[in-house]
Amino acid sequence: MHRPGGSAPLGWEAVGPQTRLTAQELRRGVELGVEGLDVIRDAADWDGRTSVTLTVTADGASASAHLGMRQAPVLTQLNTAPVQEVLRAATDEDDTYTEAFVRELDAALPDGGVTSPSRALDTWAQDIFEPGYVAIPGPDGRPHGMRVLITSANDDRRVAARTAFTELAGHDVAAVHITHVPDVNENSSYDSMGNLETVPPSPGNPHGRVVIGGDGLAPGKTGPAPEMLAFLRAQGMQDPISLDTSWLTIGHVDEFVQFLPVPGSRLGWRAVVADPRAGLALLRDVQKKGHGGELLHGGLPKLEWPYDLRIDQRTGDAFLADTQFTGTNERAAERIDTNLAVLRAKAGLTDAEIIRVPALFTARSLDYGMLDTEIRGMEDGPAKDAKQKQLEAMRDAVAEIPGTANGLVLNDGRYVAPKPYGPVVDGKDVFAEAITAAFRRTGYRVSYVDDLIGVHVGEGEIHCATNTLRGVFGPGARWWRDR
Length: 483
Known about the structure:
This protein is of the alpha/beta class. The chain folds into two domains: 9-70, no CATH class; 75-482, L-arginine/glycine Amidinotransferase, Chain A (5-stranded Propeller), CATH 3.75.10.10. It is 26% helix and 23% strand. The strands form eight sheets. The chain has a four-stranded mixed beta sheet with strand order 3-6-7-8. Strands 5-4-22 form a three-stranded mixed beta sheet. Helix 11 (366-376) packs antiparallel against helix 12 (382-393). The chain is elongated and about 100 Å long. The protein starts with 22 loop residues before the first helix and ends in a 13-residue tail after the last strand.
């Protein structure tokens, strides 16, 4: 309640059974307000709607007024909104590789219109929470609201996600945790927030639609958390689209698709999509030109143990002769095609909105390495043979060439991509040349940052190691016009 001249901060005070108003105060005018103390979590429990009845009794007569109200939905931020601050991986004194990565990243920010210094969080800053916001009509109908940081339901990320409450929450910044008790058999990686992205607005979807990866009915890979899906659906504005990420070792949508603003285009945005077929074609072209005997990863720095084992230092010819490698990329291409069909059908995406960038995946993930090490320590026999067949059958993918789609969208037509370390021909990285050309055709300039040891060997890339707070309270935040 707000009464002019009241002693409470800003004139507002809580209404309780003991609250009394004088006739003089009523004549001067009193403003009553209702404050929401939580977000809508599950429409089956509460859909966010309520009503308030005010009854006034005087001289034996009563009069009532009724008002229907709706809790403001939590909307996830869009990459089409301008970046205000970049959050990124933290470093320690002994972590020289991540320190070098952070220095390069910070150096790229001013060119992308970000002048505030980056802020350190967790190594996987993207995975611990998804930035969202709530808004209501403010002065002159302009959106007024606060940020809401939606923390990960991934059991492994919960400790790091506490920074949303302890370091970031405060004035006009809230944090919310969606409770989920993980099943012993589920893949909790699906609940990392790098697996939750938002397609920008398209016809019929004025606030975009959330995309979230999951098991695609793959056995033994249950996810994502049903409580998170219920929360997203309950907001009623960005109906989530499920994509199949079961073909990836980590299983996050940001490993193969990214959205960036393109003002003046049909939808005002485009999708950056990893293209393994284009990656294989580049590699075969290098081979055809007589450079197949060179290392696939050209220009590598001197690698110390264990990174010399984590980076596959075979030649392009050896990679192309490896049917597990080519099969992994062919399978990845097919699964990406399937996901693009879903985005075409549900999010307004057309071929004109797709920026295809060459990519290469591998089945030689950390899981592959652990199984390979186990096999090397086994005695010959049926058990070892069975494990070897299991190793050879592995096709779940992780980036071999540091993944371009897993980059950072800045302002002013700038994109930060991981340095690909592709084959070098005539002094030029053929993957970097192709990636630069693909972005140039849509008006973007790419800055390459070396994340090879700082992030990539941990099966992530720049997007995984960063997060952003964007200017979300523009005209597009007016959800109340689209009810």
